[in-house]
Structures are given as structure tokens and as C-alpha cells.
Amino acid sequence: MTSIPYVHGYSARESVRLGDQALTLSELLHHDERYPAGARVLEAGCGTGAQTVLLARNNPSARLVSVDLSSASLELARQAVEQERMTNVRFENADVMNLPFSNGEFDAVFVCFVLEHLAEPLRALTELKRVLRPGGTITVIEGDHGSAYFHPDSEFAKRAIQCLVDLQKRDGGDSLIGRRLYPLLDQAGFSEIAVSPRVVYADSSRPDMVEGFTRNTFTAMVEGVEEKALQAGMIDPVGWQQGIADLRRTAGPGGVFNYTFFKARAIKFVFT
């Protein structure tokens, strides 16, 4: 695998943020993710298991294999699944660029918030297609930081967000990859590609979304790269603090925050 640093780091705080994100977005992103009984489903890049728990809970009769390159993350994922007393998940340490599975071994593949962290997302999709049976489905979910807009507007807040975008790009990733899902799946040779925008909207009338997404997911994510952004000279400390303060202001009275995720589905073409 062409390894790049995980821009958000592996702190306990980041694990909590990922959990908050998964729970807050569970209905938006997972309400239509259902697999038939006995389906063999590969979750590629499961991380600490935030999405794994949701997949397993919503598909108790499916057989999940969740893989990740990080042994430490896999251990946290195992603990999360065991805590929920789920028995339909098997974990394996594996590289999404070189999977230890046979051609056509899975009925479905699920990939969530993974491609943005890869230097070669097209190569990863091609490998995932290999292990998918003909007629099998792939689901890919990614965000797009360029879709964030908010009130009160703030150039400082936009600059802080741009630091995250630039840091990820510098390391070989792409935090704007949501807008690229259709062409990437098309280039990888998938068929019947359908991409749907999943919009997060938060204002004072939606306090759970304000707390779960604006504060604990998005703003916390940007805050997490402060040290890297300052060390890289992308922004000065005063500008950074103002940007974060302005982002927090969007979660206050009268504040509004909007962000778009993209969920794509496609199939592996059946040759006749």
C-alpha cells in the first residue's frame, strides 16, 4: 500500500470523534445499507470500528469481514463489536491494495471514509473489484470539505478548514474526494454507478446535529490539525484561533452549518 499519514492522528480524542461522527450520521448514511441473509460483506478499512458496529447491527444475518492495516485500530474495533455482543464480524489485518482474498470471494464491499486517505484510490477500487463476485455491489461513502458553508460567514474559518485540506493533500490524500466518486468508480470499471448527496444541515432547531456534527465532528476534526498547520506555516496562531472561534460560533445561537457527504453504489459487471 502507498501509505500516507492519517492526518487526524490516532489519539484517544480522535477515537471519540470518530464514534460521535458515526452515531450522529448513522441514519443519514446507513438507513439504506442492508444486505440479505448470508451475504458475504467486506468492510475495507474499518479503522476503530465506528462504522463496523452500525453495519453489523443493521445486518445481523450478513457475514462481515472487516479489515484494516493498523493492528491497534483493529483491536479497538474488536472491542467495540464485543461490547455490543455482535457475532457476525470477523477481523483481519490486511492492506486494501493487496487483499488476502480470492477473486470473487465477496457479495458486497463497503468502504467508508477510506479513499480520502489513500494516495492511489483508483488502485484500491480496482483491487476491491477483484474480490467482489460478478454482479456484486460496492458502496463507497466519502465527505468533501469543499462543501462546507456556514453562517456567520468567516474568512478565518475558511482558512482553518483549508489548512486541513492542504495538509491532507500534502501527504497524498484528498479531503475533496466526495465529488470524484463517480469518475473513480467509472475508471475502475464498475457499472450502474449511482451517487447520492447526503446533506448535513444544523441550526438551533436541531440541537443534536449541532452538538454531534458541527461541534463534535467537523469543528473537532479541524481543531485536531492545529499543531501540524502551525508547524507547516500555513497560518499564524492568531488567525488560527480566530478561525476556530468562528467555527464554534456557527454552533451557537443563530448559527448554521451545512456539509455534504456522497454515497455511491455500483456493481461489478456480469460478463455474458
- State the CATH superfamily name: Vaccinia Virus protein VP39
Could you describe the largest sheet, including whether it forms a barrel?
Answer: 8 strands, mixed
Q: What are the low-pLDDT stretches, counting only 5+ consecutive residues below 50?
A: none
CATH architecture heading: 3-Layer(aba) Sandwich
List the helices and strands and how they pair.
Elements: H1 12-30, E1 40-44, H2 50-58, E2 63-68, H3 71-83, E3 89-93, E4 106-112, H4 121-130, E5 132-143, E6 149-151, H5 155-170, H6 181-187, E7 191-202, H7 207-223, H8 226-231, H9 237-249, E8 256-267
Parallel strand pairs: 1-2, 1-4, 2-3, 4-5
Antiparallel strand pairs: 5-8, 6-8, 7-8
What keyword list fits this structure?
Rossmann fold, single chain, alpha/beta, eight-stranded mixed β-sheet, 9 helices, 272 residues, 23% strand, globular
Mind explaining what this structure looks like?
This protein is an alpha/beta fold and 272 residues long. 40% of the residues lie in helices and 23% in strands. The protein has helices at 12-30, 50-58, 71-83, 121-130, 155-170, 181-187, 207-223, 226-231, 237-249; strands at 40-44, 63-68, 89-93, 106-112, 132-143, 149-151, 191-202, 256-267. Strands 1, 2, 3, 4, 5, 6, 7 and 8 form an eight-stranded mixed sheet that branches. Helix 2 links the parallel strand 1 and strand 2. The two termini are 33 Å apart.
Describe the structure concisely.
This protein has 272 residues and is of the alpha/beta class. The protein has helices at 12-30, 50-58, 71-83, 121-130, 155-170, 181-187, 207-223, 226-231, 237-249, and strands at 40-44, 63-68, 89-93, 106-112, 132-143, 149-151, 191-202, 256-267.
